[in-house]
């Protein structure tokens, strides 16, 4: 369902893109078929590349045919695209084979890429000339304003962590908050929620969050249900897929936006969208007050196919309702029923608590995972000492299902903070994101499991995004909880 008025509001908040040209020298060497060279832009950028080709020998009498590959991390260049047979489209791999007729001259590529490294391989020239790469130039784009970036007082060792987090967000800030500028290059609700809170602590572009809230509200599925992501071109349209938790996060994103921007008009206008999600999704609970997974459908929580998501899904619902309650109270609505519902579902959640293990279990196989504990704490189902003991216990449970993504890890850090384990949260954050820094990250990655470095839900890391929005939250934590 399209709501033109909401889309118009989104359009009014469309950001200006800031351009900066970044140029690196070529290798200056005559190249024949088979020769290749890698160029390093020194940091992660999003933008449009031009290559200045010269030549040596006779005037070029045949087109130059070359292959170009873009990589966010160096290891991407070691992957062979032909060997990728995963379920996500190969078309996300950033490589092209191009004919260029105008040597000497500048070949401008029309597509936008996300990269630090560029590899060029000459596939064919004629016998009468060799090609020379004079320089490479990137017209880089972001809607983040560098002069707005907040610089907290941090110990030297945390500066890199902060800068790389901010850089991650900066590269994802385009016409919307993208999930990843390499892939999927679009607005996802779950990613938006984390980008928005990181943005309030860093670049502070409130209108970009407002735009995204109106885009989702302006493009809904049947009965007003929010999709999990949307497309901008040729005109805004939501994806046909939904995820239980992502739909709910719209409510939290709305509340966080209000707290940061104090924009009562938007809160008032979009509260009915939040209430619609509540009305539709509350039907997915059984009489026992537990989430019926058949009805709930897709629940995301983490990129982990072996994770049972019932307990986390249950808790995410309560977590969202806690914020819906705040929204409705702010608007002076009658919240009695909602308060009863939260109480009832929170009590029912304790049916998932295994007294013997002292941990929450999920699904028919009573699976123990980090995520089930974390979400129950974030939802406020357990608090303080109980929450602390659960987090300590899960660490001592070797078969507890662990976390694969910085997205899941973000929630772990937040749960430690909420439980009053601030020092531990700080140490864990530094250890986890610091692991990526040690591996040379310029921006933080979509997936990272130190215990299983090659883990991929897609069947190969060549399609992974190495600048992924949901990984940018150390900037949020550092600013909000750990800076002086
Ligand atoms: C990935 C997207 C996005 C995430 C979804 C669930 O494919 O890149 O970041 O929200 O999965």
Question: Can you give a write-up of this model?
Answer:
The structure is a single chain. This protein is α+β, with helices and mostly antiparallel strands and 484 residues long. It starts with a helix and ends with a helix. 39% of the residues lie in helices and 18% in strands. The chain contains 14 helices and twelve strands. The strands form three sheets. Strands 1, 2, 3, 4, 5, 6 and 7 form a seven-stranded antiparallel beta sheet that branches. It has a three-stranded antiparallel beta sheet with strand order 8-9-10. A two-stranded antiparallel ribbon has the order 11-12. The longest helix is centred in the middle third of the chain and has 21 residues, at 310-330. The protein folds into two domains: 18-142, Jelly Rolls (Sandwich), CATH 2.60.120.260; 146-482, Glycosyltransferase, CATH 1.50.10.10. Bound molecules: alpha-L-rhamnopyranose. Alpha-L-rhamnopyranose binds next to helix 3.
């Amino acid at each position: 369902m399209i709501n033109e008025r909401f889309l118009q509001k989104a359009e009014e908040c469309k950001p200006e893109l800031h351009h900066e040209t970044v140029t690196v020298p070529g290798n200056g060497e005559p190249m024949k078929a088979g020769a290749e060279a890698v160029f390093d832009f020194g940091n992660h950028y999003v933008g449009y590349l031009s290559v200045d080709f010269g030549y040596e020998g006779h005037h070029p009498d045949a087109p130059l045919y070359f292959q170009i590959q873009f990589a966010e991390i160096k290891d991407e260049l070691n992957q062979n695209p032909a060997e990728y047979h995963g379920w996500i489209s190969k078309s996300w791999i950033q490589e092209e084979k191009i004919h260029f007729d105008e040597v000497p001259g500048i070949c401008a590529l029309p597509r936008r890429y996300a990269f630090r490294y560029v590899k060029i391989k000459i596939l064919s020239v004629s016998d009468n000339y060799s090609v020379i790469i004079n320089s490479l130039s990137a017209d880089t784009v972001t809607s983040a304003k560098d002069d707005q970036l907040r610089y907290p007082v941090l110990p030297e060792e945390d500066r890199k962590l902060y800068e790389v987090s901010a850089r991650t967000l900066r590269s994802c800030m385009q016409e919307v908050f993208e999930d990843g500028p390499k892939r999927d290059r679009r607005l996802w609700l779950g990613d938006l929620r984390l980008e928005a809170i990181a943005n309030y602590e860093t670049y502070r572009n409130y209108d970009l969050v407002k735009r995204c809230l109106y885009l989702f509200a302006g493009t809904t599925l049947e009965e007003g249900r929010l999709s999990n992501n949307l497309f901008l071109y040729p005109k805004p349209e939501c994806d046909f897929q939904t995820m239980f938790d992502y739909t709910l996060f719209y409510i939290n994103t709305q509340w966080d936006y209000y707290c940061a921007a104090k924009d009562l008009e938007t809160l008032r206008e979009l509260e009915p969208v939040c209430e619609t999600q509540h009305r539709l999704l509350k039907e997915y609970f059984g009489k026992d007050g537990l989430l019926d997974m058949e009805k709930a459908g897709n629940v995301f929580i983490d990129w982990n196919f072996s994770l049972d998501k019932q307990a986390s899904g249950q808790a995410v619902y309560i977590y969202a309702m806690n914020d819906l309650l705040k929204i409705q109270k702010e608007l002076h609505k009658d919240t009695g029923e909602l308060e009863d519902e939260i109480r009832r579902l929170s009590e029912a959640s304790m049916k998932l608590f295994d007294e013997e293990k002292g941990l929450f279990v999920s699904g028919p196989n009573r699976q123990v995972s980090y995520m089930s504990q974390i979400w129950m704490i974030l939802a406020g189902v357990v608090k303080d000492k109980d929450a602390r003991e659960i987090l300590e216990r899960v660490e001592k449970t070797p078969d507890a299902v662990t976390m694969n993504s910085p997205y899941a890890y973000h929630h772990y850090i937040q749960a430690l903070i909420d439980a009053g384990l601030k020092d531990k949260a700080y140490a864990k954050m530094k250890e986890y994101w610091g692991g990526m820094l040690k591996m040379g990250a310029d921006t933080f990655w979509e997936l990272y499991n130190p215990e299983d470095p090659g883990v991929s839900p897609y069947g190969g890391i060549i399609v992974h995004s190495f600048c992924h929005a949901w990984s940018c939250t150390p900037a949020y934590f550092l600013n909000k909880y750990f800076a002086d």
